[in-house]
Design a protein that fits this description.
The chain is mainly α. The protein is built from 15 helices and two strands. The chain is 76% helix and 1% strand. α3 runs antiparallel to α12, α4 packs antiparallel against α5 and α5 crosses α10. The chain is globular, with a radius of gyration of 23 Å.
């Protein structure tokens, strides 16, 4: 911005009135242009935060909705149907928008997004929720922001500041302490699924955030879903005859939400938000996701909210505020 302003001022001084520029108003115009650029940048950052925050809100309902879905479907059927319905919604949106297929160079990245966010994370967390409560799963997956920041640093060359890492590690420490305290010092049987879900989801989020910088975020979400359509069709055909189906209102609502809300809408606003503010910063907003899920678990599932939740909520929100106040990411040269 300073270099741009200096270049304009130099041209104004050099060309003067002969170039049709009033030397007396050049500085004011440059200042106004500079201020407009700063304002636009701030508005873009706020918009990115709002979009990423909306994504976190949608994701926070995923575990309770999955628990509802498991009332009607088996884990494999639920994931297959979730992916199938999400792919149909995404495909319809792409057709209505007459969106051309992505460049060939983007398909490998979309495959990573699909494997991590569309298939891997939903399947592993659904399997975990057969034995783990949504409250327990929520706090374990609270490590996702730190995991995503690490993947992003390795994949994209982002170099968050030391203050960022300190705040991120502090937030992760709060989540770990909360998890250990609530589990009595022992990990549950579903934790292996949950930790696997952390890894595949972080890889998918990182690649999705990178792609959202070169193509619209909703298209990243939509094409990754469409890419899974053949697999979802095969999975549905194989799982439904094997696993029992007991349709209930909760089960249908849960399936619809994880397909439309989490798999499409949530990913759409999430990737768009990441493109605006960067993967590491957006990922730290997810520190609030476990606590929101705890709230939904109490309101929708009747689970008991741990007494330590309010303390953890305050600590985590402070960590979020700290990560959002750190400097811009630096790139390796």
């Amino acid at each position: 911005m300073r270099a741009h302003s200096s270049a304009i001022n130099d041209n104004s001084i050099a060309d003067g009135p002969s170039a049709g520029i009033d030397p007396g108003t050049g500085t004011e115009a440059d200042t106004r242009a500079s201020t407009d650029g700063i304002t636009t940048g701030r508005e873009s950052h706020r918009g990115g935060l709002a979009l990423a925050g909306l994504g976190v809100f949608a994701f926070s309902l995923t575990f309770p909705a999955t628990a509802w879905g498991l009332e009607s479907f088996g884990p494999w059927s639920l994931v297959a149907l979730r992916t199938l319905l999400g792919a149909v919604i995404a495909g319809g949106a792409l057709l209505l928008g007459r969106v051309a297929p992505p460049d060939r160079r983007h398909w490998a990245g979309l495959a990573v997004v699909a494997a991590g966010g569309v298939i891997g994370f939903p399947l592993l967390t659904t399997l975990a929720l057969r034995t783990a409560t949504t409250s327990h799963a929520a706090v374990v997956v609270g490590l996702l922001p730190l995991t995503t920041a690490v993947f992003s640093s390795l994949r994209t060359g982002a170099r968050p500041s030391r203050a960022f890492w300190i705040a991120a590690l502090a937030g992760a420490a709060v989540v770990i302490a909360f998890t250990v305290q609530q589990s009595g010092g022992e990990l549950s049987g579903g934790d292996a699924y949950l930790f696997g879900a952390l890894l595949v989801c972080a890889a998918g989020y990182t690649e999705g955030g990178r792609l959202a910088r070169v193509m619209p975020g909703w298209q990243v979400a939509a094409w990754s879903l469409v890419l899974c359509l053949p697999l979802a069709m095969v999975g549905t055909a194989l799982a439904l005859p094997v696993e029992p189906v007991r349709l209930t209102a909760h089960g249908v609502i849960g399936l619809v939400w994880v397909a439309a809300g989490s798999a499409f809408l949530g990913l759409y606003v999430w990737y768009r938000g990441m493109a605006e503010i960067g993967v590491p910063r957006a990922s730290q907003l997810q520190l609030a996701q476990p606590l929101l899920t705890l709230l939904w678990s109490f309101l929708l599932l009747g689970e008991t909210v741990p007494a330590a939740a309010p303390v953890a909520a305050i600590a985590v929100l402070l960590c979020i505020a700290a990560t959002q106040r750190t400097g811009r990411d630096r790139r390796r040269r």
